[in-house]
Design a protein that fits this description.
With 281 residues, the protein is an alpha+beta fold. The protein contains nine helices and ten strands. Strand 3 and strand 4 form a beta hairpin.
Length: 281
């Protein structure tokens, strides 16, 4: 354990230079590269990806997890993942020794960043890499990890199929959220019957086609909304025929309006966590 009288370990210049974390909780300082890495990779510690501004998307083999500023994405140790983010995103990644946090989350998940947790993350950003584990700095980190373990889950994930043909269809729907073709039309294009495709969709994602597509559309709307686009334009671009239909679907899915979810982290309540669930860097 490091105390102020000890010689601190040298600070790494790149994350990949680390063989182990210098402290149970480690975060990039301003001088270190903190960019999104889209290619799949993994590391031996857990990761929390949080954006003070912008929208982060973490991709894994089985899901897509989206976090606006009031949310963050937890990635377990050893879990393959890639990270995408919207333009001008201000992202902070925290890396956690697996034994340091009491949370027992075997899979990626989106977490609600409460006002207290947000301020703890900000305060941690002011600490040196070799913070004093035995002093006030260590106590701040202990509270941060405690609040992280208690953070409510948020249903901002999109289950992803492992079947290659179904994954291609899902990729097209994600890239063109205004695609209005029915399941039957997609089935005919793929050369299978509609019932077969419907069963495959539910087996691979845990959701029916219409519900999966709706969630895909709403998640596609988040980066556009965070970028300041008009809500009406976003609704139309994401396949909704009217603003009222979009707002209603958004509220049903996330328990909040777009403004409540994206623009007011301080006032965000746990409403967006009490709805039906589905299932870096």
């Amino acid at each position: 354990m490091y105390r102020q009288t000890d010689t601190p370990p040298p600070e790494p210049r790149r994350l990949e230079e680390l063989k182990r974390l210098p402290r149970p909780l480690y975060g990039h300082r301003e001088t270190l590269p903190n960019r999104a890495i889209r290619r799949r990779h993994r590391h031996p510690w857990a990761q929390l990806s949080y954006a003070a501004r912008g929208v982060i998307e973490v991709e894994t083999p089985t899901g897509r997890f989206v976090a606006p500023p009031s949310r963050a994405v937890w990635v377990p140790a050893g879990h393959p993942h890639g990270v995408r983010c919207s333009r001008d995103t201000e992202m902070r990644s925290l890396y956690v020794e697996p034994t340091a946090c009491a949370a027992d989350w075997p899979d990626c998940r989106v977490l609600e960043v409460t006002p207290l947790l947000r301020e703890l993350i900000r305060a941690f950003g002011e600490l040196p890499v070799a913070y004093d584990e035995a002093g006030a700095e260590g106590r701040l980190v202990a509270v941060l990890l405690d609040r992280l373990a208690a953070a409510p889950g948020s249903d901002l994930g999109l289950p992803w199929p492992t079947d290659a043909r179904l994954a291609r269809l899902c990729r097209r729907l994600r890239e063109a959220p205004d695609d209005a073709r029915t399941l039957g039309e997609h089935a005919r294009r793929l050369g299978v019957c509609e019932r077969t495709l419907s069963r495959a969709f539910r087996a691979q994602t845990g959701l029916g086609f219409r519900r999966w597509r709706q969630r895909c559309r709403l998640l596609a709307a988040l980066p556009r909304l965070e970028a300041g686009e008009r809500v009406t334009d976003v609704a139309l671009a994401c396949g909704y025929e009217s603003l009222s239909a979009f707002i209603a679907a958004f509220r049903t899915q996330f328990g909040a309006t777009p403004g409540e979810l994206l623009r007011s982290p301080e006032g965000a309540s746990s409403r967006a966590t009490s709805h039906p669930r589905s299932r870096d860097q």
